Every structure is written in structure tokens, then in C-alpha cells.
Amino acid sequence: xxxxxxxxxxxxxxxxxxxxxxxxxxxxxxxxxxxxxxxxxxxxxxxxxxxxxxxxxxxxxxxxxxxxxxxxxxxxxxxxxxxxxxxxxxxxxxxxxxxxxxxxxxxxxxxxxxxxxxxxxxxxxxxxxxxxxxxxxxxxxxxxxxxxxxxxxxxxxxxxxxxxxxxxxxxxxxxxxxxxxxxxxxxxxxxxxxxxxxxxxxxxxxxxxxxxxxxxxxxxxxxxxxxxxxxxxxxxxxxxxxxxxxxxxxxxxxxxxxxxxxxxxxxxxxxxxxxxxxxxxxxxxxxxxxxxxxxxxxxxxxxxxxxxxxxxxxxxxxxxxx
Length: 322
Prior knowledge:
Elements (H helix, E strand, L loop, with lengths): L13 H6 L23 E5 L5 H14 L5 E3 L9 H13 L3 E5 L25 H17 L4 E4 L2 H12 L8 E4 L8 H10 L3 E3 L6 H8 L6 E6 L13 H8 L2 E5 L15 H24 L25
Parallel strand pairs: 1-2, 1-8, 2-3, 3-4, 4-5, 5-6, 6-7, 7-8
């Protein structure tokens, strides 16, 4: 890969537009994120919506074929939608390749009695409703970590704080990482800092945040950020391929998530959706290759974090107290 420090990245269309007198304003060094991942690097990759061992096998095969480096693979349907054998198979397959596996915890708004999420106001969001839903998330977390899962995906602030307390107390392993879902992603720097303090190790922001929004967040928090470079339609369907280099410059340390627009939803997954799930899993890897090719062409492919790295470094937390 190109060493990002050797030459400044080329911006899309830069030379042609400059020749036409349409050059872009100079970038301000003050906008750049000062943060990196521990161990070095400013960006990692993630393939989301990998809903079981079969989809995982497709992703791994396609990643090998297209030479797409993967730091993390995540699932969206939920831990309770997988058998112990399926989870173990996924843990072993990702472990052999030193890839972090992240599974979603517990029931959430659209799959329980939370009909208010379907109203125009979207009241309640995709959170865990009541004690029993929180309990389901905790049950999922304990079960998954006992089977070797090291990253848990969370869509509720209370569940996030509870699981952070659980790892401090040794109920789940201390090196378990907690990933905040795009379903509740923060949209301002204050909210981002709160999620970090509640225990978030990797915080997904909505893909419609502006570049200036990312800079604002990075002035208050160095917690790793997740962002769909291409978002599913139910999250807006945004495609920000040509902005990848600038997203990294502003948002590092950043997970580049390769989602897929113009595709039907697959949560919660079952075998009745097998062909769609496998074909979209394969295409997400291809989308990743397209984004990485853009980084290469623009001389911005350097500073990828080492493969196998997964921990977030020292972060700010609320005091748990006695």
C-alpha cells in the first residue's frame, strides 16, 4: 500500500478541475483528526450483515479472491437467532484469520411490542423495552462471550452501560468490546462523548453526518468511529465512496463499513432468505474492493491499522461507583 506520509493524497478530479479553473479550496490541517488506533493506523474495515456461518464463508472466500483486508465482521439479526454450533463455527473461522467477530445483542424495538417505532414519530426507537428486553440482551452477551465472541453490538444506552459494568465486574471478559449500533448512532459531539463514557468502544454514526460534523466529534473524543461508506436503504442508502479519504482524514480512527443500498432487508435472518443473504454478503465485499481501489488511486491507502488489531485504546468512562 502507498505510504500516506510520502505524498499528499490526490482529491477526486483534482487535476482536471484545476486545469478548468475549478479547483477546490485548500484543506485545513486544523480539520484533521489527531487520533489513531492503538498500535498504529487510522482506519480499519468492517463487513456488516454477515448473518451466519454460510454467509461468513462467502465473505471470507470473496475477500480472499478480491484481496480485501478485513478487521471486523458483524451480524445484525442477533445472537438469539444463532445456535451454539453456528456461533462456535463463526468464532473459529474468524479466529483462524484474526478477524474480530461482532454479534448483536437481544431483542429491540421493531421485533417486540414496540409498535411506536412504526409511527411517523418513530417513538422509542430500536431500544430494549423494559427489564425483560435488557435481560435478554445480557443473556445473549453472557452466552456469546462464553462461546468465544469478543465483540458485542448494542442498540440501547441502558444495555451499553449494563454490559460495561458487567465486564468491569468480570461477568463477561474484560477485553470484550462494545460496539454502538447505527440504529442509535449519535449525531453531535456531546452525544458521542456520552456513548464513549457509557462504555462504547466503537461508535457508529449515521452516514449523513457532514465532514464538519466529524471534525466536531474528533475535538471531544478519540473513541473509534464506525461509518457506512454505503448505507442500507433503511439507514438512508447513502453512498460516500468518493469521500473515503476525507472521511478518514476527519474521522480517524475510523472503521470503514461496506454496506449495500438497493437491497431488501434481511433481519431477522432465516433460511427462507438464504439466496438473498449470500448474494448480498458477496456484493458487500466487492463494494469494499471498490472503496479500497479509490483510496489506492488517490494515494490515500496508507495508514491502515494492522490486520488482527481490535482493541480501542484508553477511553473515557463514567465512574461506576460502589
